[in-house]
Amino acid sequence: MAENFGILFQWLIFLGMAFVSIVASLLVITRKNPIHSALFMVLTLLCVAVLYILLYSPFIAIIQVVVYAGAIVMLIVFIIMLLDLEVELRSKMKVVYSKIVGVFLALLFLFGLLYSVVAKPPTGEIGSLTPDRMANNVKTVGESLFTDYVFPFEISAILLTVAIIGAVILSKKRT
Amino acid sequence: MKLPDIDLYLIAPEIIITVFGFLVLLVDVFAPKGEKKGYLGVLSLLGVAIAFFYTLPLVGTGKTGFVEMFAADGFAIFFKITILIIAFLTLLISIGYAPREGIGFGEYYALILFATFGMMLMAAGTHLIIIFLGLETMSISIYVLAGMLRGDQKSVESAFKYFLLGAFATGFLLYGIAFLYGATGSLYLKNIASYIGSKNLLNHPMLLMSLAFLTIGFGFKIASVPFHMWTPDVYEGAPTSVTAFMATGVKAAGFSALLRVFFTALPAFQPDWTSIMWLIAVATMTFGNIIAISQNNIKRMLAYSSIAHAGYILVAFVAGNKLGTSGILFYLMAYAFMNLGAFTCVILLGKKGEENTLITDYAGLGFKYPLLAASMTVFLLSMAGIPPLGGFMAKFYVFSAAVEAKFYWLAVLGMINSAISVYYYLRVTVLMYFREPEREITGLSFSPAPTLALILALIGTFYLGIFPSNVLSFAQKSIAGLM
Amino acid sequence: MWVVPTIPPALYLILSGILFMIGVIGAITRRNAIVVFICIELMLNAVNLSFITFSRFLQSIDGVIFAFFVMAVAAAEAAVGLAIFVMLYRSRETVNVDEVNLLKW
Fold first, then answer.
1. ipTM of the predicted structure?
2. Which pLDDT band, with edges at 50, 70 and 90, does A174 fall under?
3. C-alpha span between B108 and B61 (Å, rounded)
4. A125 assigned to some structural domain
5. Are residues A79 and A156 in the same domain?
6. The pTM is what?
7. Domain range holding A145?
8. Helix H or strand E encompassing B225
9. In this structure, what CATH number is given to the domain that contains residue A2?
């Protein structure tokens, strides 16, 4: 019986978070003020972070809050304020033909996506990480990052260096 | 818990390229200010050359390393050689071009080296994470390189468009990878293929969706119709040396990743993708060639022609047989030489503050600068597919692969397209030799480095046209591990 | 005894698909480049949700690792992208996608 309550609680959290994240992401793409968009983006990210905890991935949940919501979106907000873009100039809703086609194709893709995930559950090979082992996965993630995945990890170091060099060289004052 | 076997010899070319990237940055910091920093380019050239000599001993070893994430098989080596040649020629061009446009500082050369590093990883990765990270390292470097001319609005705009569309395409590529992972539970290309085979997952909707997403994601990188709309704008606005690098390097790396993922991981879906790719190939060729006719800017014209060339390469991809795949490898190398050569001519015709990229600027060039005009003619004719140049042999292999695989219509449409393309390539040639110049272009300086690049590109174009069998047999050996 | 079923993976994947397509539609229709970029981040975030879901139900660590690298890449893209926007704003006083049309789009 106690297990039932636990699972029921999971359902409640899942449905609540799913609903809030969808609403928030819809607000992201409809608000006129970019600051509002960015803040609703934070809300979406936080909801998804809660879902990560439901999926036994506390590490990614923490990273999501710290890096995504905390750093990336804050950087975006900072730039919006720096550039003084708070009002999006909206000279009439210009209905562009290509945009309608784009949205139509996107909806078509959405149906394809939904069909493909409902038609068959993920069929991949089942590994050995049971939820219990997954639940304290900070250790597991760290271990595999520095053993099996040490090469991609080093590449990502270079990737970040490239990004820093690029950002500096582009935004440096002209000499 | 233990580290995987680390075989540094296997990734020596990548390490050397990276080390030289950082070295260039460091030297730039400690160098006296205000000098013309040509030696930075020479240093980067040295790095590429050393990396090249460390790549050659890996030929034929077929080793893998880092828990089999990284392969030094024939396919990877062939592409690495192509990419290093492209980087070498680009750097040679840059030594003349970058200081002229005021972007000849360390970061420029370093970013070219880092982009080269990313491209090499895309060719060598047998694990989706490596391919993805390589692709992003390349893309981010190129976004920045495209916007290097900060004072030039066109350059800024080109970086802006390339960035937005590139990031957008990344999302699709990632979704494709996610579904591939979900359906097979592995990120190793080989394991994906064997799992699909053993569980008989054909017609799995998730895999079909993933196929569609991967096509979109890679389609952006190789600039195939309908994912091509960024190409002309970005190619026109970016600094010309970067455009040359993009048109050849990004395309080669994109095709290497496309081939690797589709042929190694998803060979079971070949019937599904051929029909789609057939359409894309025809649309890409036709669209590129027809729009190229009406262009009046040479960089835009070359951009549309590069779209058309992606179409020709896709013809071989559709054919999917041994000849086709080795034909793609051959084509990309030939394309690298002739396209880089053509862009070198475009650069040599410009000078500080005056790009001279209108096609009418080429009028009468044959009388004033006969050697420059002659080499431009060679490259254009090679792209049009006139024997005995490299472009002809490349097209010959590609179309005969289509015939061999019984795609007769595709081959016919390809040849018709090739005939259309002769028109706009010849138009420039005719202008150069049979028209009076509309205005005087004087004071061109032929600095040694771009001239050397021009000579090397000429040698490459002629060599691939007259003695194609050496490179083709190398390409045929290279794809052994792929299919 | 009546047992409540656990949340099936399909629901997470549906949510991920919906978020992804909201991101795509936003990126296509919005005109402010920064909002377009936020929408692209939304797409990447949806992909991460898929990866974590697969990782959980396939009981393997690869998906988590991939999500980690996606975040690293997103951070790198944000740095470069925002630098490009700043540069564009300095030279053009706008980051409106439709007004950036010196080159034929």
1. 0.94
2. low
3. 34
4. no
5. no
6. 0.95
7. 133-175
8. none
9. 1.20.120.1200
